[in-house]
Amino acid sequence: MFDSIYTKALLFLIIISFFSCVGTKIHDDRFHTFTCKSEWSETEIEICESTSTIIEGSDSTKIIFKKTNLPGQGQAQPLLRTVWRKPKNRTYVVSVQFCNKRNDLCFDILPDSAKTGLVGHELVHVQDYKNRGFFNMLWMGIKYSLCKKYRTRIEYVTDSTTIANGMGYEVLNLLRFVENSGLAS
């Protein structure tokens, strides 16, 4: 019955997406939710919500903001259990680096303008995902993971789009802070 590798892979994706959970329910009357709200300062919440009004379409997109351990500063992706839906009906997760003993360069220590640049950059990724169907997004994820040249191009286009949305100063502040902090590896 499950002889083909493709059948097994598809079955695995279906099972994972069915059982995946973030633990945060997003209500129909709210577009933005913050996990572990006590970890977010009022300024950080305001930055995330105000930045989503600058990036076109982000204010009406369901987004869960969370702080977590990441290999980089930020990450945006669709919530796994909603990846099968139409792009406009998906919920997206924007994660930022949480402070811990292993990583001193985290969201909490960034200047406010750099936080705005980081959130804006991740919201542009969300807007890109909203223009992609499931298989297109899956193919993009595979190429992004395996090909450094493709990843560099995607990040360049994302930065350019963030700058085109009027957030050039904020992106520049983020890059300068990371470069000059001495905390980046």
Describe the SSE topology.
Elements: H1 5-19, E1 32-34, H2 42-54, E2 62-68, E3 74-78, E4 91-97, H3 112-130, H4 134-146, H5 148-181
Parallel strand pairs: 1-2, 2-4
Antiparallel strand pairs: 3-4
For the record, the count of structural domains works out to 1
| Percent range of helical residues | 40-55%
Low-confidence parts lasting 5 or more residues at pLDDT below 50? 18-22
The overall strand count is 4
Sum up the overall morphology in one term: globular
Average pLDDT across residues? 82
With strands numbered from the N-terminus, the spatial order across the biggest sheet is 1-2-4-3
Q: Which CATH class applies here?
A: Alpha Beta
- Find the CATH topology: Collagenase (Catalytic Domain)
Oligomer: single chain
Distance between the termini: 48 Å
Main sheet specs: 4 strands, mixed
Count of helical stretches: 5
Radius of gyration: 17 Å
Beta-strand content estimate: 5-15%
The topology string of helices and strands comes to HEHEEEHHH
Please sum up the structure shown.
The protein is of the alpha/beta class and 185 residues long. It contains five helices and four strands, in the order H-E-H-E-E-E-H-H-H.
